[in-house]
Amino acid sequence: MEHVLDNPAWHALATNNNSLAHGNEHVKYFAKEVSPFFGLEVNSAENFQVLYDIVPHNGPVLFVTTSQTELPAQWKVSRFISGIQMVHHGEATAGATQTELMTLADDHIPQMLHLTKLTNPGPFAERTIDFGHYQGVFDGDKLVAMAGQRLHPGNYAEISAVCTHPDYLGRGYARQLLLQQVQRIKTNGETPFLHVRDDNERAINVYKSLGFETRTQIYFYVMAKNI
After folding, report:
1. How buried is residue 227: exposed, middle or buried, by Cβ count under 10 Å (0-12/13-18/19+)?
2. Would you kindly state where each structural domain of the chain is located, as residue ranges?
3. Is it the case that residue 34 has pLDDT exceeding 90?
4. Do domains 4-82+220-225 and 86-216 have the same CATH topology?
5. Is 3.40.50.720 the CATH classification of the domain at 86-216?
6. What DSSP state is assigned to residue 189?
7. 8: cis peptide before it, omega within 30°?
8. What stretches of 75-191 show up as alpha helix (H) in DSSP?
9. 4-82+220-225: what CATH class?
10. How many CB atoms lie within 10 A of CB 65?
11. pLDDT of 97-137, one tens digit each?
């Protein structure tokens, strides 16, 4: 049986992120303003065609898979990212609080968009906050670091958008935000996971030091309709 994390976008859209899902029983996707991810129950040519027919925009959309895939001709790939999927197997201890973490809300969206554009932790759009559980660190009124949750397949919750303003690196903000997310997820009886580029050794080492272990290689295809 396929592990839910082998097809995380599909299982998220079909389970705990279902309230944000569009599509049908075999092909689902998020609204463009939430996330570019889509999920296919089975990675078949038929389902890629259904996706082509029902997505109401020309992309980009984001395909995540544990195996490199040759995509059907009606889709063109603009970017390919090789990464690893890491799952947390450590303790749920958040450690001593070093600085105040603030829950982020709609009025923080402009700053969240600015910070993610500056640091590029992955796709982040106007309604990505709808995934929930976003927290940030502020210097006065300025958002300087944040992290939150994205895909929520079954009993797993993905930590995402972990980023720190370049002027505030080295202060431990990302580590604190990560540990807080880990503790929250594990307190809910679930398992944290995340994705990272496989050439980002600095981030991978940080994640390992916090109790994350590599589960599998994973690949991301940024795609658009070939029209």
Report:
1. exposed
2. 4-82+220-225, 86-216
3. yes
4. yes
5. no
6. T
7. no
8. 109-119, 173-187
9. alpha beta
10. 16
11. 578 999 999 999 999 999 999 999 989 999 999 999 999 99
